[in-house]
Each structure stands twice: as structure tokens, then as C-alpha cells.
Amino acid sequence: MKFQRPKGTKDILPNQISKWKFAEKTIAEVMDLYNFREIRTPTFENTFLFTRGVGAETDMVGKEMYSFVDKGGSPLTLKPEMTAPVMRAYLENGLFNELAVQKLYYITSMFRFEKPQEGRYREHSQFGAEIIGSDDIYSDAEIIMLAREVYRRLGILNCRLKLNSIGKPEERKKYVTRLKEYLEKNFRDLSADSQRRYETNPLRILDSKDANDRKITEHAPHIIDMLSSESRKRFDMLCDILNNMNIPFEIDFRLVRGLDYYTDTTFEFVSDKLGAQDAIGGGGRYDGLAQALEGKPTPGVGFGSGIERVIIAAEKSGFEFPKPAGIVCYFITMNEASRKVAASIAASLREAGKSCGMDLLARSMKSQMREANKLGAKYVLIFGDEEMKSNLVILKNMENGSQETIAMRADEILKHLS
Ligand code: HAM
Q1: Is the Cβ–Cβ distance between 363 and 371 less than 8 Å?
Q2: Which of 18, 94, 126, 379 lies in disulfide reach of 324, CB 3.0 to 4.6 Å?
Q3: In the beta sheet, which residues pair with residue 46?
Q4: How far apart are the CA of 306 and the centre of ligand 1, in A?
């Protein structure tokens, strides 16, 4: 039997890993600068966390969850997103007692049963951040700036920020009634998916990708025109803050997002380098989520962003990820005696913080040289038979080709390694 990885998953191979590490390091650095602390939650959660938190009518809950009943009979789901788990952890661990405003971030795998294509996987890696405990509009702005700064540092300069507000649930209810009235006359022409959504989740018809649906909704009423004066004020303030900070954005009435917990602000960063899966990251405010999870009312705002998409967008924008550092020193040995000395010198060098490697296949000198090159070794140490007799070793600088013969002692070798 020939095994293959499950559909929609990927192997991140050693020759790609440095990009991932660089992206993850950049994310962590920006999170530090903005004073967000990392949180890690379980890979699986009680399924009801998502049905309650994200919404039973959403595609995520209805179609995309990897749910199972474990051997103890508990209904569990591999986390498809992190906002509900983070809020669960916040409430369960009483994080409100620790700080009035919690700023949390994560970098973790998410699982969604989606149709795989470039930029869309069944397991993807997501980084995200949540500010829990504040409904100050500056927290919405901070989340947007944080995401933008990560993208900027990874050379993704051409992504656009789309912004909308979907108001409070009461306002949305009124809007949905108006939207349905508007759509009713064209109901027959809507795609099958949108016809279904007309009953279950009419807002999502606005972000349908179907060309005909988009034509029908082109002149649909806009939710921001139906917000209460309080919600509208919030939205205008956010636009004002972004303008003030010279952060360009576009107001997009179609931006309703796919998860039920959103209130007021919704936003998405899109990149035209990403093809059909153009959302590099997205998020918004979720002031009702804590209550939906039977916690005390607690406002929150956050975003999530797929690392695969970030890496694709960075590469397509011409960003050069730093090359992986090669090893410092590769030991070329000729026989058992030299391997023995090399192994103990290697241990001393490693102890002193110098990465080194030696041949593990007793290969010819030529093959060992080739291996040293492949590993990007800065130096090779050649334990030649003649030199060994006098307790000497040849140190070759692989960058400029120069070589010298030095004492076969770790302290002496260390002095010569830069
Ligand atoms: P989301 O829009 O579902 O939001 O996902 C966030 C980001 O994750 C997307 O913009 C995309 O970059 C990436 N992503 C999602 N699904 C996939 C996939 N199948 N393959 C590759 N990348 C994917 C959320 O998950 C919210 N929890 C974000 C949030 C945090 N809202 C408030 N706080």
C-alpha cells in the first residue's frame, strides 16, 4: 500500500521551513511590539463550542467541521477557528481577573473540510490576535494596524483593506428584512446556494462569488446606511482613525464575513496576488460571543490570517526570505581513527555554539566535500592521514577557498572559526 498525505494537507519540507520560521518569528516580534501575549488551546474542543459560538447556520459549522465522538462518547471537533476557543479559555480561566483588557495571539493549525485549491487547505496554519475586554474603537484600529504591520514586514505592500460594519443584532435583523424584500423579486434568478441562504443566512448572499448573484445584489441596500446612530458613529470614528494614520481602506458593503459572532466592525485584507482565495486575513468585532458561550457580557475584536497565504503573497510580491544559515563546520574523515577524533571535537564545538556535521556513511573524500557544499558549510576540517600523525588538521574556508593547517584541538579550531 502506498500512503499519501490526506487531501488538502501539506508537508512542509526542510527546504521550505526557513520561510515558515521567518514568518512565525516576524509575527511573534510584531505581537511583542503591540504587547500581545501568546495563548495555546487544545487541538480539539467540545463541538457545541462552535455550534453556539460560530453559529449553526454558518458554512463552517454546517459543512466544514471535522467532528467526531471519542471513545468516551464526547462530541469533539478539531478547531476550525480560534476566536471561540480563545473566548472559552478566557472565560474558563477567569482571565478577566488578571487584566481588564487581554491582548492575546496564537499561531496554530486549523481544520476545515473545504474543497482544496491553491491557498485553501483542509489543514491550514493561522495566526491571529484578539483583544478581549474593551469596546473602545481604538482596539479595532489596533487590530487592523497589527495585521498590517505583519504584512508590511513580510513585503506584502499591495494588499487592500476592506472595511464594513454589520451593526448590532437588532439592526442586522431590520436590515435582513429589507435585504430579503429586495432579493425577493429576483429570487428565481439567484444561484441554488443563495436561494438556500435566503432562508438560512441571507447576509451571505452579498458575498456570493456567483456572477449573477453579484449582479442582482449590486444595488442592494447597504447595511451601513441602516445602522443606529451609535453604530454609525463607531464606524465613522474608525474610518477617521484610519484616515488619520494614513491607512488606506475601501468600504465594502458585501463584507459580511462568514461567522455569526460578528457585530459592528468587519474587515478583510485582500491581495490580488492570491487568485480566487484572495483573503489574506480578516476579522472584526464580536461583542456577543461571550454571552453566546454563557459567559458574562464581554466585548472583543480580533483577526486571523492564513500563514500559507501570507507566504504565497510575500513571494509573489518579490519578498526575499532570508536564506537558511548553513552549518559552520563539516568534518571530513578518512577512517575510523579520524572519525573518533572528529566526533569528540564536534561535541566540543557544538558545546561552544558552533553547528557542525560529519559524514555518517564513511564516504569518499569527494562525496564528503559535495555534502559539505550542499549543507552550506562555511568551513571544512579535513582529518588527513598525514596531518593526523602530527596531531594537525586542515581547515578550509569554503567561502574564499583558503586553507591552513592547525592543531587538532577544539580550542585551537574554535579560534579560527568566525
Ligand atoms: P476566517 O476569515 O475564517 O476568520 O479565517 C481567517 C483567515 O484564515 C482567512 O482570511 C485566510 O487567510 C485563512 N484561511 C481560512 N480558511 C483557510 C483555508 N481553508 N486554507 C488556508 N487558509 C485559510 C476566522 O477564522 C476568524 N476566527 C478570524 C477572527 C479572529 N475574527 C475575529 N477574531
Answers
A1: yes
A2: 18
A3: 76
A4: 6
Per-position b or e across 26-46, b if 16+ CB within 10 A of its CB: bbbebbeebebeebebeebbe
With beta carbons less than 8 A apart as the criterion, state whether 125 and 307 touch.
Answer: yes
pTM: 0.95
Task: Give yes or no for residue 266 CB within 6 A of ligand 1.
Answer: no
Q: Is 104 touching ligand 1 by the criterion CB < 6 Å? A: no
Instruction: Specify the pairing of strand 123-132 against strand 300-306.
Output: antiparallel
Rounded Cα distance, 342 and 327, in Å? 16
| Smallest CA separation from ligand 1 atom 11, residue | 306
Strand order, beta sheet including 75-78: 44-46, 75-78, 67-69
Instruction: Find cell 519540507 and name the residue.
Output: 13
C-alpha span between 214 and 58 (Å, rounded): 20
For 292-313, b/e burial (b = at least 16 CB within 10 A) is bbeeeebbbbbbbbbbbbbbbb
Ligand 1 atom showing the smallest separation from residue 130 Cα = 33
Instruction: Give the separation between CA 261 and CA 61, rounded to whole angstroms.
Output: 13
What is the C-alpha radius of gyration for the chain, rounded to an integer number of angstroms? 28
Which of 77, 124, 298 to mutate to test ligand 1, by most ligand atoms within 8 A of the CB atom? Answer: 124
